[in-house]
Amino acid sequence: MQQPALGILIGGSSHVGKSTLARALASSLGRELISTDDLGRHPGRPWPSVRPQVAEYYASLTDETIHWFLKVHHENMWPRIRQIIESRLKHAQPFVLEGAALRPEYMAQFEQEDILPLFLYADDAFLRRRMLEESRRADADGTKAAIIDKFIERSIRENREMLEAAGTADIRCIDVAAPGTLDALVKEFSAA
Questions:
Q1: Can you give the pLDDT at residue 192?
Q2: Coil vs helix vs strand at 173
Q3: Does residue 110 lie in a domain region?
Q4: Could you report the per-residue pLDDT of 24-44, keeping only the tens digit for each?
Q5: What is the CATH number of the domain that holds 159?
Q6: What InterPro entries does this protein's entry cite (predicted)?
Q7: Mean pLDDT of 174-192
Q8: How far is the C-alpha of 120 from the C-alpha of 18, rounded, in Å?
């Protein structure tokens, strides 16, 4: 098996395991780990506590506006992300970059021999269950529960739309709901 690409990009919606896989791959391969979360903040998940501006964001905007704003946020981040990728490639610095802002349509812009784009996804029920548990939705009051529900629906919609885009862009899609998938990926790349 040949050495993995210089840059490994891991995209996907919230709660699909991007950070977990990226940490494991970076550690196993001895690569720099970069997260798009460190580059810019979107209102994000409304737990464990809800900041007032995050509560206002989810409570006052429509689902369509929340979805639109997320896509605009990712679009605004892309020039900086692209700059990071190009710099690492120019200096031949192996890296793993993960984040929801790595939308399939952006990852597809790179040459396949230098960059390996991966898209993590799961079915709606798996993602919903994972987010309900982590957010402790069952313990939330009415207002917080409604905000959590909006975040979950936004994330599931993103998962569906980005999965379709990844398929169109011929990006390798990994179903994280299948047991052992992330461990198998780490072994696959570590054996290279």
A1: 64
A2: strand
A3: yes
A4: 999 999 999 999 988 876 677
A5: 3.40.50.300
A6: P-loop_NTPase
A7: 88
A8: 7
> Which amino acid, one-letter code, is at 188?
E
Q: Count H helices, E strands: the chain?
A: 7, 5
Strands 32-35, 172-175: pairing kind = unpaired
Residue 150 lies in a domain: yes
Would you say residue 1 lies in a domain? no
Asked whether 75 and 13 are in contact (CB, 8 A), the reply is: no
Total of domains in the chain: 1
d(CA 29, CA 52): 40
> Cα separation of 101 and 160, whole Å?
15
Domain membership of residue 107 as a residue range:
7-190
Tally of CA atoms within 13 A in the half-sphere of 64 that contains its CB: 0
Q: Is residue 2 part of a domain?
A: no
**What is the DSSP track for 107-170?**
HTTS-TTTEEEEEEE--HHHHHHHHHHHHTGGG--HHHHHHHHHHHHHHHHHHHHHHHHHHHTT
The whole-model pTM stands at 0.93
Q: Are residues 192 and 137 in contact, defined by beta-carbon separation less than 8 angstroms?
A: no
AA letter at 9: L
